[in-house]
Amino acid sequence: MAKYPFLPEASKFMRELGIKISDLGKPEYRFILDRAENRIEGAILFGTTGDKSPKDDVEIPSFPIAVILVAATKNSLIRKRYALAEAKRISDLLKSEDKEKIIRIAGTFNWRMRPKARTTSTICDFTLHYTDFLKCAPVFHDKKWKLVNRQMSEGAVCLTVHEAARLLEEEIRRHIEKKLEIDVVSLPEAVMSRVSLLAQLFKEKRVVPSDKPSGEIVTSAFPPCIANLHSEIASGRNVSHIGRFALTSFLINIGMTTEEVMNLFKSLPDFNERLTRYQVEHIAGDRGSRTQYKPPRCDTLRTHGVCPSMDVMCEGVRHPLTYYRRKLRNVQRKPPI
Amino acid sequence: MDSVSAKFIHDRFSDYYRINLSTIQPPSAIEKREFGFILFKERMMVRHKAFRTVERLRDFLKEIVPSDAYYSSAYYELPEEKMEAKGRLGTDLIFDIDADHISTPCQKTHDRWICRGCGHNSKGLPPETCPSCGYEKFEEKSWMCEICLDSAKNETIKLIDFLMKDFGYSSEEIDVSFSGHRGYHVSVEKNEVHALDQVARREIVDYIIGIGIEPELHGLSERPERGTRIIAGPSLDALGWRGRIARGTYELLLSSAPQDLRNMGIKPKTASAISKHSERLLRSWKDEGPWSVVRDVGAESWMKLALYGVEKESAKIDTVVTTDIHRLIRLENTLHGKTGLKKAKVAATSIEGFDPFESAVAFKKGTAKVKISSAPQFRLGDESYGPYQNETVELPTAVALLLLCKRRAKMV
User: Fold this and answer.
1) Where are the beta strands (DSSP E) in B35-192?
2) Is some CB atom of chain A closer than 8 A to the CB atom of B287?
3) How far is Cα A284 from Cα A4, in angstroms, rounded to an integer?
4) A32 against B145, higher pLDDT
5) Is the pLDDT of residue A334 over 70?
6) Residues A23, A17: Cα–Cα separation, whole Å
7) What are the CA-CA distances from residue B205 to residues A32, B96, B155 (Å)?
8) How confident is the model at residue A213 (pLDDT cuts 50, 70, 90)?
9) Residues A152 and A158 sit within 8 Å (Cβ to Cβ)
């Protein structure tokens, strides 16, 4: 229950404890509030949920209380980050659970999951109904998550324990993120001050991508595709692999530094510093083959659905970099006012 | 179209809906579906209609006599409202297999296209741009021939196999119909598919067409073993795409000459090794499969062959229809405005023996005299007709109606 506080029995336990929101400011709830705050701090700073409390009557209620605190920040990026951290914690735990436990948790989301024994020819620990598989799997970009690359028979898709944990992580992340959308009306003052501190901590941690990352970059000269990707990333939304590649290679090519590009990606909910640095440096030509990659041509971007819609300037242009250079000339030609 | 021909068509459709009204069956949850009709007058589409009972739907059909009648694959809270206010509750999983999307050798002989820009015309499928004026819009005059409809039927059989074996639906859960023109419609109405979003439906489409398939992820791989490299691959009886890859590759080895293999990008040396050892390769399927049998055929070649095997095994469904969650589909047992044939249901288990040119015939009595501009030879029911070229013929009603609807003939 302490490990999986979203399960029905945890909710029952909470009801029995009978904590009222208006009482949260009282000293007896200090430990619970401390642990709740610690969960959120961990999520903001490290993408984890802090150290577990040994006491169940602190650990279990600290999750719903943390949910209330996060919701009270009314900040969608904190919501995303917290939901991801909780989901990751659960997914790590699931990887070492026995099959029955995993199936029970899948069952709370009405997933039709069954145990299966591995054979010499297949590595299959579970089967999951394909309609449940398709709820989460399409957000993953790796080819092994495409339905066509799965072993499927009679509507049942084969999964390993790790894959089942990964899929459940995504479902749990969404489940928690939805919980975090509740409207928190009023909290005791002492609790509200904790909320403000958390929001402040997040602000300091997050590097806000500015409109002009360096003296040279003119965002108003971005072609529609890049402008779109740039604002998606800056607002912390998830962007496809090819979209990220197009944006990164575009920015590097117009003179942004690796560091500046890294800062832009920091606001993403699944930001992984090591991996992002590796990929950005690779595109910049600081690693691997040492070639600096160019962004894909317009027609390639169109095929992959990255081109939102063309504007007047797009006509007669076959490459986003050409667009940028042409528009830059126009922008610079305009007399100052 | 001249008014005499138009009136004849309308009168026959009217007869049909008067006499056969009781054969019109409602889709499940009729009150939650949107209906749409194309009217003969102005060929206008009337949408956003809804009916609480099948009787009301039948009355409406008899009253307005549409050229075509459709219902939505989606269920709505308020089916009569505008699109944004309907409140979609779910959508059936639907598939369309249209001969237009399958290239057959006979298309070149019976289909024509006419450029809307300059009137230039030629046989076969229209090009990207008109070779004469560069315009991109064409009028297509297609014909429904047995070869085209047979290939559509074969694709439908493959699709049903996917739905039963891989997706786990029973033959009773799969609705199959001949569309009344050039293809087949397949739908699954089970609750579990209603909530699938467009991304999920795209994944189902990719599964059935084999888009993005990686043979390595289906067990075709090369690994070192005792100083040599062993290639392993799926077996014929494996489940899902594994078995399909194996069976497709088997078919390919069975049917390809060395030149065919070279056309697939197989090196000449490898192609001749395959044909030299073809006996051994085919026998090997009983054991470990052909993957490691001939030294000259490496993993790269098997990968290429496997992908051609995938192409053979995949079912050529229309990708847009399945991913569209608001699609309108022709209503069963209603007439198709382009042919005068009806959309006819067929049991998933008996599709192999199904004859669309027999089952979809809606008029069994009477004759009509028509002047035919041109038509290839074709069959309807047990009789064969044509080819015709500028001639006046007295024909059974269904045959005359087909030629009139296809605009190959006029009433005299």
Assistant:
1) 35-38, 45-49, 68-72, 74-76, 88-91, 93-98, 112-115, 121-123, 138-141, 174-178, 183-188
2) no
3) 42
4) A32
5) no
6) 12
7) 49, 11, 14
8) very low
9) yes
A153 touches chain B (CB under 8 A): yes
Amino acid (one-letter) located at B324: D
Helices of type H across B65-173: 107-110, 146-161
Choose among A143, A148, A155: nearest Cβ to B168: A155
Specify the DSSP class assigned to residue B399: H
Asked if A309 reaches chain B (Cβ–Cβ under 8 Å), the answer is no
Provide φ and ψ at B341, rounded to 5°: -95, 160
pLDDT at A207: 53
Nearest to B359 by CA among B377, B345, B379: B345
Minimal C-alpha gap between B254 and chain A (Å):
25
Q: How far apart are CA A180 and CA A160, in angstroms?
A: 30
CA B317 to CA B350: how far, in whole Å?
20
In this structure, are residues B311 and B252 in contact, taking their beta carbons and an 8 Å threshold? no
Per-residue DSSP letter, A140: -
Quote the CA–CA distance of B376 and B110 in Å, as a whole number: 7
Which residue among A129, A148, A153 sits closest to B206, beta carbon to beta carbon?
A148
CB neighbour list of residue A97: distance below 8 Å, 6 or more residues apart:
none
Report chain B (412 residues): mean pLDDT per 10 consecutive residues. 94 97 95 97 90 97 96 97 94 94 76 84 81 82 85 97 98 97 96 95 95 93 84 92 95 89 91 90 87 87 94 93 94 97 97 96 95 93 93 97 95 94
Beta bridge partners of B385: B378
Least confident of A54-58, A212-216, B330-334: A212-216
* Structure-block tokens of residue A83: 């939901």
What percent of chain A shows pLDDT beyond 70?
Answer: 93
Residues in chain A: 337
Q: Which residue of A has its CA nearest to B212?
A: A148
Quote the distance between the C-alpha of residue B195 and its chain's center. Answer: 24
Which residue has tokens 């500046």?
Answer: A260
Is B288 an 8 Å CB contact of chain A? Answer: no
> Which tokens hold the place of B272?
């001749």
**pLDDT of amino acid B76:** 98
Better-scored residue on pLDDT, A118 or B53: B53
Q: Is A107 on the interface with B (CB under 8 A)?
A: no
Residue B313 in tokens = 């095994």
A184-188, A305-309, B180-184, range with greatest mean pLDDT: B180-184
B240 touches chain A (CB under 8 A): yes
Check if the beta carbon of residue B354 is closer than 8 Å to that of residue B154.
no
The answer to which of A114-118, A262-266, A304-308, B104-108 has the lowest mean pLDDT is: B104-108
Strand B121-123 with B228-232, pairing = unpaired
Among the listed residues B302, B336, B277, B305, the one whose alpha carbon sits nearest the alpha carbon of residue B68: B336
Minimum CA–CA partner of A123 in chain B: B219
> In the numeric block, which tokens belong to residue A267?
């606001």
* Residues of B with Cβ-Cβ distance to A149 under 8 angstroms: 212-214, 217-218, 241
What is residue B197's three-state secondary structure? coil
Widest Cα–Cα separation across chain A: 75
∠ CA B318-B323-B329 to the nearest 5 degrees? 70
Interchain CB contact of B241 with A (< 8 Å) = yes
Which of A144, A147, A151 has the CB atom closest to B203's CB atom?
A147
Among candidate residues B68, B95, B74, the one with its CA nearest the CA of residue B86: B74
Instruction: Number of helices (H) and strands (E) in chain A: give both, helices first.
Output: 14, 4
Domain residues of chain A, as ranges? 8-91+174-204, 95-172, 219-333
Q: Which domains does chain B have, with CATH numbers?
A: 3-99+145-205+318-362 (3.90.920.10), 109-141 (no CATH), 215-313 (1.10.8.160), 364-412 (3.40.5)
